[in-house]
Design brief:
The chain is mostly beta strands and 196 residues long. The protein contains 2 helices and 11 strands; from the N terminus they run βααββββββββββ. 13% of the residues lie in helices and 35% in strands. The strands form 2 sheets. Strands 1, 2, 3, 4, 5, 6, 7, 10 and 11 form a 9-stranded antiparallel sheet that branches. The protein has a two-stranded antiparallel sheet with strand order 8-9.
Length: 196
């Protein structure tokens, strides 16, 4: 048939700006530094100096929050975390939704989003604990050049953090429940680039 489409499920994903907010050196860990920089001008100058010095030494201060986007059942929007209250993200574009993150040991585990009608959407884990993303991701990069061939550069020793949380459960405001079941397929991704 023409003129129709099927939209199944939904997801919540993040656009990383700097480092993952909940990663090492991420936005969550720099709250005191960020807060002091907005308090008064000498702190802003000091922050700029510290940031430039740290960058030149190969260290990172993530001072910009990641952008998170969600979409399910016609409810969509985006938000960022407020460094002053990590439990109350700031929803942009004046959407009438409430986003509630679940942090475990400073890491994002799951989200729930309540829309204007009171329908509750669980991303990452359902209310029963079914998980969507894998925590045993290995970071590794490979490069190939004409003279040296293929070289592997191990990634960080820290496990990769998820950048997408799939819709796992919907609890409509009128009652009932919709659960999504996810099966995994091992996927190996390759990225190539050519530099002449």
């Amino acid at each position: 048939g023409l003129g129709w489409s099927l939209n199944y499920g939904g997801s919540l994903s993040r656009q990383v700006r700097g480092s993952e907010d909940d990663g090492p050196g991420g936005y969550f860990g720099n709250a005191v530094l960020i807060d002091s920089s907005y308090s008064h001008v000498p702190s802003r100058i000091s922050l700029s100096t510290r940031y430039n010095f740290a960058s030149s030494a190969g260290e990172n201060y993530d001072l910009v929050p990641d952008k998170f986007m969600f979409n399910a059942n016609g409810t969509s929007g985006d938000f960022i975390f407020d460094f002053r209250d990590l439990n109350s993200p700031l929803v942009t574009h004046y959407k009438d939704v409430v986003v509630t993150p679940s942090l475990v040991n400073g890491k994002i585990e799951k989200f729930s989003v309540t829309d204007a009608n009171g329908t509750l959407y669980y991303y990452g884990k359902s209310s029963t604990g079914q998980t969507r993303y894998s925590k045993d991701v290995v970071n590794a990069s490979y490069t190939y050049n004409y003279q040296n061939g293929l070289n592997q550069y191990p990634g960080s020793s820290n496990p990769a953090l998820p950048n997408s949380w799939q819709l796992m459960e919907v609890i409509p405001y009128k009652g009932g429940k919709v659960e999504y079941t996810v099966s995994y397929t091992h996927l190996r991704a390759h990225e190539t680039s050519l530099h002449l």
